[in-house]
UniProtKB/TrEMBL annotation:
Residue ranges, annotated region (Disordered): 1-23, 666-694
GO cellular-component term (any): nuclear cap binding complex
Protein name per Swiss-Prot or TrEMBL: Nuclear cap binding protein subunit 1
Bias (Acidic residues): 677-694
Gene Ontology MF annotations: mRNA binding; RNA cap binding
PANTHER family: CAP BINDING PROTEIN, NUCLEAR CAP-BINDING PROTEIN SUBUNIT 1
Domain of life: Eukaryota
Family from the record: Belongs to the NCBP1 family.
The keyword Transport appears for this protein: yes
Organism this protein belongs to: Cynoglossus semilaevis
Length: 795
């Protein structure tokens, strides 16, 4: 009885307590929801919603001030597309509670310092832009904002700092001016003129060697591919000429002008940009992607010109929406289509241009490639009457401009288009592209169509591709992906190894052991040996041929069968492919049997690297070998090479991480012992533990050095092969007085750039070695130019 009463009381007490503690949490969640959702679709006007929310927050300030500060700082950083909505809200709160306004400005400055310290430069841009728009809301005094901008621009005078550092600080200032330029010019015109002339001086002396490497197209027509700072500078110059009048930014604070202009303003505390640190990772320069102009959107509102600031604002906001919602494609598509002011602009054209701009961004897109496919599919579903037409027009334009398009961007276009087609029954007006059949099949257009059909086949099956494409395109249709077994029937009976292949096939079917199979393989004569000497273990290509052809033939039914076969006979394969020649010949056999099935080649090579039957350097040597020269410009070859490099990089990172963890563990143990002052027995145990850890660290250190040496060797092999191929081509052209710019040459140079761009972080560790051994001053200037462009990216 008493126990039950005790538990009842306890339950009641707990419930009461839980209710009491959960109430503030509920209120905090409600505040967060209210703040995050303001500015979304609503039956009331934005102004009345903001006024209501300001009233709610003001009432909650005494109890939840810190929480409100935290939420507002977070939305300033993470929801930049609603920038002016939140600056207005802060303005209204500042008008009602001056102290809160001051605390918010201080919190923002603290957050700005933190983001810069943590290399979060994109978020820092949004924070500075937010602060600058607070000038419009009478929260921050204009002179102190100008002073902050002056400090930012002073970075351009620093010596021995990378250009990308100065670029970022100049970009921040310029990118704020569409929002706050008018207000600052009205209050501080002399200072602003001085600031802009300093920026102009800096832009004139900037080095722009890197631009060519980042351009999507080499041609300047129909749209110039401008460097991002040059383009933004031209837009700001035009804005200044138009007396800072821009017609696209939503400015809810104008409605509250009578309230806001009465508010007291805060001065920003003096802000000195943090000094340059060697480990700082500044954003890379970009090229502004341009695909449409006002002539491409014939009906409805006119598209702003490429140098109008409206174009910058629209694109910036669309990029922000994608950045905020990229993990939820449906929400992202809906947000893009409900963009404020959509009736004043050809929104579908802007959206398609921005999405392709991100997909083609070099060195890498901001998000995973598949996002852009799924996002465009979602947009087509939401706007079936208009968006598919714009997308078809864009695809047609991209096809027409393939001749001057960067090969890396063509790869991404192939992957996007084939994936997109697979979601729409592969329907396309192929006859419109019949012009690709009348030119050399090595040129970009026929190559593009061939690769798209090859990728589409991976997403369906061979006969489906044959059925959807007009018969005239038969030359571009991929071969049927069947296994080519050279010992298939009796016509091959004259081939060396034919009889053994039958014996071996039967042994594998009868589940023979590894020893039994090795005994059969001993019978295989070595074509490399003249007479019967005792060097039985030397490289025997026929052994690899017979065993691998027979094994893969029996396992050709599926990927899984092939993987099981490699796993089951892993030891034999490792023994056969022990030498460098053995590894190369193993890869050669895989290509011979599966040459009509590039996807199978890619997955088998991947599996063999993982299981250490072949190594990364062997794969690189094989891809650049004479045997593969006719496949050199095929997309799958480069997918295999990049996958191989990524594996090598991950392997190095994994061992480095293990080494760091072991060092941390040792350090913690020693600190713990020092703090606790243990007795002698404990000391002895600890010393033993330390000894074991030190041995482990030593072993890991050796593994790291060995892996890094392997990694460096891989890049040396790749770049050396590129240099050899390009040098041979240049000499051949010079001797025969032929133009060097063949489709093969453009492809090869683009692929060299692609290696630099896609693996730039790793390659930078080995710049000294590359410069001393390969990219020397004596190298032909055509090849050296690529290396110099790469170096300029991080100047």
């Amino acid at each position: 009885m008493s126990r039950r009463r005790h538990s009842d009381e306890n339950d009641g007490g707990q419930a009461h307590k839980r209710r009491r503690t959960s109430e503030p949490i509920e209120i905090e969640d409600r505040l967060e929801s209210l703040i995050c959702r303001v500015g979304e679709k609503s039956t009331s006007s934005l102004e009345s919603n903001l006024e209501g929310l300001a009233g709610v927050l003001e009432a909650d300030l005494p109890n939840y001030k810190n929480k409100i500060l935290r939420i507002l700082c977070a939305v300033a950083r993470l929801l930049p597309e609603k920038l002016t909505v939140y600056t207005t809200l802060v303005g209204l709160l500042n008008a009602r509670n001056y102290n809160f306004g001051g605390e918010f400005v201080e919190a923002m400055i603290r957050q700005l310092k933190e983001t810069l310290k943590n290399n979060l430069y994109n978020e820092a841009v949004y924070l500075v832009r937010f602060l600058s728009d607070l000038v419009n809301c009478h929260v921050i005094a204009a002179p102190s904002m100008v002073a902050m901008f002056e400090n930012f621009v002073s970075v351009t005078q620093e010596e021995d700092v990378p250009q990308v550092r100065s670029d970022w600080f100049v970009y921040v200032v310029l990118s704020c001016l569409p929002w706050v330029g008018k207000e600052l010019y009205e209050k501080k015109d002399v200072e602003m003129d001085r600031l802009l002339s300093q920026i102009e001086g800096y832009l004139k002396r900037r080095v722009k060697t890197h631009v060519q490497m980042l351009q999507v197209w080499t041609a300047e027509k129909p749209h110039p591919q401008e460097e991002y700072l040059d383009c933004l500078w031209a837009q700001i110059q035009k804005l200044k000429k138009d007396r800072w009048q821009e017609r696209h930014i939503l400015r809810p604070y104008i409605a509250f002008d009578s309230v806001l202009c009465e508010a007291l303003q805060h001065n920003l505390p003096p802000f000195t940009p943090p000094g340059h640190m060697p480990d700082a990772q500044y954003p890379m320069p970009r090229v502004v992607f341009r695909m449409f102009d006002y002539t491409d959107a014939p009906e409805g509102p006119v598209m702003p010109g490429s140098h109008s600031v409206e174009r910058f604002v629209i694109e910036e906001n669309l990029h922000c929406i994608i950045k905020t919602h990229w993990k939820e494609r449906k929400t992202c598509a809906a947000q893009l289509l409900s963009y404020p002011g959509k009736n004043k602009i050809p929104l579908n054209y802007h959206i398609v241009e921005v999405i392709f701009g991100e997909l083609f961004q070099l060195p890498t897109p901001p998000h995973i490639d598949v996002l852009y496919t799924t996002l465009l599919i979602e947009l087509c579903k939401l706007q079936p009457g208009s968006l598919p037409q714009v997308l078809a027009q864009a695809t047609e334009m991209l096809y027409m401009r393939l001749d001057t398009m960067n090969t890396t961007c063509i790869d991404r276009l192939i992957n996007w288009f084939s994936h997109h087609l697979s979601n729409f029954q592969f329907r396309w007006s192929w006859d419109d592209w019949a012009d690709c059949l009348t030119v050399d099949l090595e040129k970009p257009k026929p190559k593009f169509v061939k690769e798209v059909l090859e990728k589409s086949m991976r997403l369906s099956y061979h006969q489906r591709i044959v059925d959807i494409v007009p018969p005239t395109f038969s030359v571009l249709i991929p071969a049927e992906p069947i296994f080519i077994y050279k010992y298939l029937d009796e016509t091959a009976s004259t081939l060396p190894g034919y009889q053994l292949s039958i014996t071996l096939g039967n042994a594998i079917k009868n589940r023979a052991t590894n020893e039994e199979i090795l005994t059969i393989l001993k019978e295989v004569p070595n074509p490399n040996q003249e007479d019967d000497d005792d060097e039985g273990e030397s490289f025997n290509p026929l052994k690899i041929d017979v065993f691998l052809q027979t094994l893969l033939h029996l396992a050709a039914k599926s990927f899984s069968h092939s993987f099981s076969a490699l796993a089951k006979f892993h030891e034999i394969l490792k023994t056969l492919a022990d030498s460098d020649e053995g590894k190369l010949h193993t890869l050669k056999v895989i290509y011979e049997v599966w040459r009509n099935h590039p996807q199978m080649i890619a997955v088998l090579v991947d599996k063999m690297i993982r299981t250490q039957i072949v190594d990364c350097a062997a794969v690189a040597n094989w891809l650049f070998s004479q045997d593969m020269a006719h496949e050199f410009t095929r997309l799958y070859i480069w997918e295999i090479l990049h996958s191989t490099i990524r594996k090598m990089n991950k392997h190095v990172q994994k061992i480095q991480k293990e080494l760091e963890e072991a060092k941390d563990k040792l350090e913690k143990q020693q600190l713990k012992r020092r703090d606790s002052g243990d007795d002698e027995d404990m000391d002895k145990n600890s010393e033993d533990e330390d000894g074991q850890l030190e041995e482990q660290i030593e072993r890991l250190q050796e593994k790291v050095e060995s892996a890094q040496s392997e990694q460096k060797n891989l890049f040396l092999v790749i770049f050396q092969r590129f240099i050899m191929l390009l040098t041979e081509h240049l000499v051949r052209c010079e001797t025969g007085s032929v133009d060097i710019s063949t489709p093969w040459y453009k492809n090869c140079v683009d692929r060299l750039q692609q290696i630099f761009l896609m693996h730039h972080v790793t390659i930078q560790q080995y710049m000294g070695t590359l410069e001393n051994l390969l990219f020397t001053a004596e190298l032909d200037h055509h090849i050296l130019a690529v290396y110099q462009q790469f170096c300029a990216l991080q100047l």
